[in-house]
Structures are given as C-alpha cells and as structure tokens.
From TrEMBL:
Signal peptide: none annotated. The gene is efeB. Residues 84-229 form the Dyp-type peroxidase N-terminal domain. Its cofactor is heme b. It is found in: Cell envelope. Binds 1 heme b (iron(II)-protoporphyrin IX) group non-covalently per subunit. Belongs to the DyP-type peroxidase family. The keyword Ubl conjugation does not apply. This is Deferrochelatase. Its EC number is 1.11.1.-. It holds the Pfam family Dyp_perox_C. Its main location: other. It comes from the Bacteria. Residues 1-25, 311-334 are annotated as: Disordered.
Length: 437
C-alpha cells in the first residue's frame, strides 16, 4: 500500500494531535515509524506548499524499541518542492531565527559549499533522520520530525560578498526608516538568514545547533532569536494564534486557496533578469517588535478593542459577525461615528485601504526576560512573506506609521529583508540556481 491522500493546507496555528496508536510498532527518529490516531503505523506528510498527505509506512519495527510517536511527533514537512518549507506550513510551536555573515575571505565558492551542507542537513532533519554531515549532536535521537522546517534566505550584503551584485533583485533595496524604529544594527540584516520551526522545542534546538556547527569556518552567527506559539494539538481544532497582547493575530492572512495567492506571495515562474533565480521564491521581511505590555494592559478592554478594531474575545470586527467576517469600514454607530475608528489597526492595515497590498504574516512571539526597568522584554518576531516587499510590507507599514492607534504600544528593535529562493528540486541544494547559474 503506497497511496496517499492530499488535502489543502491551513494557515492557522497547528495540527491537532490524535491519541497515540497501539499497534505495537515502535518509532525512532531514524526510522520515522509514526502513529496517527488509531491508524497504526501511519505518518503525516506536509508538502512544501502546505498540503497534507497521509502515507502508509511499511518498514519493519525498529529493533531499538523506541517509544511510539503521536501525530504531533510524526508529522513530516517535505524539503523538496516548488517553494521552500516554512512559508505556507502551519505555524509551529517553537521557532528560531538566526542570521549569519560570511567569514572574511569567504566568497561564492565557500557559500555554495555551505548551502550544500545546510541543505543536506535540513533534508535529513526534516525527515526525522540524523544529519549526514558529521555534525549531528544526538540531541533529538528519540524524536520524530515534529513538523520541522528549515528555510534559507539571502540578505542584500550576500551579493556583495559573493560577487553577484548583478543578480541582486531590486526588491532587496533597503527598507525605508519608520518613526517607531529604534533598530539595533547588530541584531538586524545579515548575509544569510535561517528560519527554523518545529512542534517540539528539542527538535527545533537540535536543528539550530546542527546548522550552526555546519557553518564551520565559512560563516559566523550575526544574531539569533527564539520564538514560540501555542503548542500544536492544544486545541480541538486549529485556531488563529494570539499574540502577547491577547489579540488574535493573522485573521486577515491570504490563504493558498485564494485565486491570487501565488501572485501576491511568490515570485512567478518564468521571471526574467535578476529575478530569474527567484522563481517560486518569496521575500521575507523580519521585524523584532517589542510590545510595551505594561502600557497596553492599563487600557480597559473597550479601548483595547477600539485600538485594534476587533473584539478581543473572538477576533470578530467591531461591526459584528465572526473572526472571518469582513469588517464594515463604513458602518456608523449610535454616536454618529464609524464603529471601527479611523486610526484602528484593522482599518489602516486592511488590503482595501492599501491598494490591495497583501502579505502572509507568519510570526512567533518572544519573551527574553525582564528588562532593567522592570518591564517584560517581550513581543513579536514578525515575519511576513510577499512577492514584492515594495508592494507588500512597505506601503502598509508606511500607512501604519502615519496614524495607527497601536503604534504607541510597539517598538521596532530589529529588522531584516531577505530573498528566499524557491524550493530545491531533487538533487539540488537551496540557492543553487543563483550560485551556479
């Protein structure tokens, strides 16, 4: 039996876990024998475009006798595909972001060798196997794939370091300055960017540590940040994640089922010029956004909801309905004013208010302890994806910058813009079409 069933992906928080199977088949990270509910030795496979397939596993039981995995542990995201994993993959419970700079003297040759190593490691770890590069630490020997994704991108300076400036897309031009920026250059940008996500914190850290060791003498860590979301399987059904302000965050995201999704999020196939190697890829904007939670939590609930333009309880617009109901931006209340205030975040960021500009938000929350002034160093590792940041992130952020009621409660502390090429075909490494084209 080798058939599989494909269903559409979900941009919501995660995949609910079923009970562990009881057919006596053991599972190890090396052999990927998993259980899905009562289905026995069956593993979930998530394609790089977000689809989920159920594939039968026909291997013999692992003689080592490792314990069986639940749905959460056995879910595998495919490394190869039209797009890199980690873009439309449902949000994972744990995330790591890390930027590297090429070492002095390292150029195109060293970068290509590094991307080969990283791709080999990512492919193995995402399949639940140990790394083949000799750098595996054994941290996750008894864990499954746990929806691990590893996504690679190139910063603007990468093209200078590798002599590829002629192939640098205009979409990597520096982002403009915004009034809420207090950016730390040491925690911003970078030659290379890696996004790691998994539904098991140990699996995510294992990938981070292994990739760092894989870098060897070719690249050095510039900055690294850790994030989290609600645990996969914690709710009976996938739900849109909440941020640390308690607000449902991501309701207005475009979905893969939208007819214009690919046009908005991915660089089209057949792209020409400097964009050719980016076909099937996307541009990631990263922002470390600290939330001034002490100030925010002093606001009464009704004022918080007017700042956002949505109910805190269920994410529905203040004009009524459910979370997915389109806000009625023209509705007038009994006081003669628009129900959703003119400076509400939901109004200002709405695509119809920004010439149709859209981006796929896929963030992680962060908490890095208590600052010296006694306030929580916490907020959002904001990541958004789009085919062109000059038409996606930039116009929306400019408008938010001019009058968003939420801005006084946010501080943008780090930033980055990265070109994330399409997914590698079988036998390719990530970025091969750029580095060897």
């Amino acid at each position: 039996m080798n058939a599989s069933v494909r269903t559409s992906g979900d941009e919501s928080e995660g995949t609910p876990a079923g009970p562990a199977g009881g057919d006596g088949i053991d599972i190890s990270r090396r052999r990927l024998l998993g259980t899905v509910g009562a289905a026995g030795a069956t593993g979930l496979v998530i394609g790089a475009a977000g689809g989920i397939g159920i594939a039968a596993v026909v291997e013999d039981p692992d003689p080592a006798g490792s314990p069986a995995l639940t749905t959460v542990g056995s879910t595998e995201v495919m490394f190869h595909g039209k797009h890199q994993a980690g873009i439309t993959t449902p949000l994972q419970s744990r995330g790591h972001l890390v930027a590297f700079d090429l070492a002095p003297g390292a150029g195109r040759k060293e970068a290509a060798a590094l991307l080969r190593r990283w791709s080999a490691t990512a492919k193995a770890l995402m399949a639940g196997r140990p790394a083949t590069t000799g750098t595996d630490t054994g941290i996750a020997l008894d864990a499954g794939p746990s929806s691990l994704t590893v996504t690679f991108g190139f910063g603007r300076t990468f093209f200078d370091r590798t002599g590829l400036t002629a192939r640098r897309p205009a979409q990597l031009d520096p982002l403009p300055a915004f009034s809420s920026d207090v950016l730390d250059p040491k925690r911003s940008e970078g030659d290379l960017w890696v996004q790691i996500g998994a539904d098991d914190a140990l699996v995510a850290f294992h990938a981070l540590r292994t990739l760092q060791k894989d870098a060897g003498d070719a690249a050095r860590v510039r900055w690294q940040m850790n994030g989290f979301n609600r645990s996969a399987g914690a709710t009976a059904r996938p739900m849109t994640a909440r941020n640390l302000m308690g607000q449902i965050d991501g309701t207005g995201n475009p979905r893969p089922t939208d007819p214009d999704f690919d046009r908005r999020i991915f660089v089209p196939q057949g792209a020409s010029g400097a964009q050719e190697w980016m076909a099937g890829g996307s541009y990631a904007v990263f922002r470390r956004i600290r939330m001034l939670l002490d100030d925010w939590e002093k606001l009464p609930l009704d004022k918080q909801e007017k700042v956002i333009g949505r109910r805190k309880s269920d994410g529905a617009p203040l004009t009524g309905g459910t979370e997915t109901t389109e806000p009625d931006l023209h509705k007038i209340g009994p006081d003669g004013r628009v129900v959703i205030p003119d400076n509400a975040h939901a109004r200002i960021s709405a695509p119809e208010q920004n010439g149709g500009a859209a981006m796929l938000r896929r963030p992680f929350s962060f908490h890095d302890g208590i600052a010296a002034d006694g306030t929580p160093d916490a907020g959002l590792l904001f990541i958004c994806w789009q085919a062109d940041p000059l038409r996606g992130f930039v116009p929306v952020q400019r408008k938010l910058d001019r009058g968003d009621a939420l801005s006084p409660f946010l501080r943008h502390e780090a930033s980055g813009l990265f070109a994330v090429p399409g997914g590698p075909a079988e036998g390719e490494y990530v970025g091969q079409r750029l580095l060897e084209g």
